[in-house]
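[recover] target loaded
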């Protein structure tokens, strides 16, 4: 094993996945300290974080398909798996090999579907569980971010674990995040924690680009009838604007198991078009932010 990976070794310990939406004392202390200097990643133009307060709502599915859609639009794209305890990018993107290391001892993210990918899942044995506490998780995320040769990239997409925990804090405190895409299903429990997560990003002055609503409806294959699973709930009105609403769909589920994102396997479908819209909307939002900051600096 190379020295860079060896450096990660002390961080790799056996255990279980843990997450919480409530801030721990350690996190509260970290936030109270204020923001350390946010350092730009060398060669990376913009960083987009995909997040949700809730688990299992489709964050990783959205992150993988969003990254591939950006790549299909001609952008140079990376996908960092910030889910240290439950990495799913290796499976979704079918990249399992341990990264090589360059002469400066930086990991070279393996590439698939024109997207450079890096995940703790490539560095730990698949049958090994992981136990890390706050500071170790933070340093693991920083190693994946700064210990890799990401550039040149137009957009680095970061998939995050559920909740607003150490990973989110570490990312927002140390890196200039261009914007956040929130993902939620429409059920009240998910909306509530997603709103709480949105507040954390607001507090840390990280712009929220909008919401991907997932699994509100399904379209019947035979008659094209749209089946709605949820009515609009009052709490959902407080969520950021919906960028796209994705259907519950058998192909999306199937592709998650196969390691081929749905926008690659079924490019000419309604849901693939929705992912393209998400990519285009985000690129536009990035462009608008750049215009504003240029005007501000004049
Ligand atoms: N629109 C959809 N239609 C069908 N299946 C979906 C859809 N979105 C996500 N899934 C499936 O739901 C499961 C959970 O999705 P995913 O892993 O992307 O969620 P997550 O929010 O990243 O979960 P975690 O919180 O564990 O990281 C996966 O099996 C995925 O294929
Ligand atoms: Mg996930």
């Amino acid at each position: 094993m190379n020295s860079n990976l060896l450096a990660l070794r002390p961080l790799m310990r056996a255990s279980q996945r843990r997450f919480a939406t409530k801030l721990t004392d350690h996190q509260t202390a970290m936030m109270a300290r204020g923001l350390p200097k946010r350092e730009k990643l060398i060669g990376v133009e913009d960083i987009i974080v995909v997040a949700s307060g809730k688990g299992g709502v489709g964050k990783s599915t959205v992150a993988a398909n969003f990254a591939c859609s950006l790549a299909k639009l001609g952008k140079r794209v990376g996908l960092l798996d910030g889910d240290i305890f439950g990495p799913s990018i290796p499976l979704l993107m079918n990249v399992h090999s341990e990264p090589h290391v360059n002469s400066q001892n930086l990991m070279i993210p393996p590439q698939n579907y024109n997207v450079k990918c890096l995940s703790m899942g490539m560095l730990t044995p698949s049958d090994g569980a992981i136990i890390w506490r706050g500071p170790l998780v933070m340093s693991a995320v920083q190693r994946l971010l700064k210990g890799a040769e990401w550039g040149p990239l137009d957009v680095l997409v970061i998939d995050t674990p559920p909740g607003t925990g150490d990973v989110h804090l570490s990312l927002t405190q140390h890196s200039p995040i261009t914007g956040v895409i929130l993902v939620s299903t429409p059920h009240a429990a998910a909306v509530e924690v997603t709103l709480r997560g949105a507040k954390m990003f607001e507090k840390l002055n990280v712009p929220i680009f909008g919401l991907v609503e997932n699994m509100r409806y399904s379209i019947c294959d035979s008659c094209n009838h749209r089946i709605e699973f949820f009515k609009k709930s009052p709490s959902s009105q407080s969520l950021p604007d919906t960028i796209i609403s994705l259907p519950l769909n058998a192909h999306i589920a199937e592709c998650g198991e196969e390691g081929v994102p749905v926008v690659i396997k079924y490019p000419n479908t309604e849901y693939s078009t929705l992912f393209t819209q998400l990519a285009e909307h985000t690129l536009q939002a990035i462009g608008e932010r750049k215009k504003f900051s240029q005007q501000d600096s004049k």
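[recover] notes: The chain has ten helices and twelve strands.
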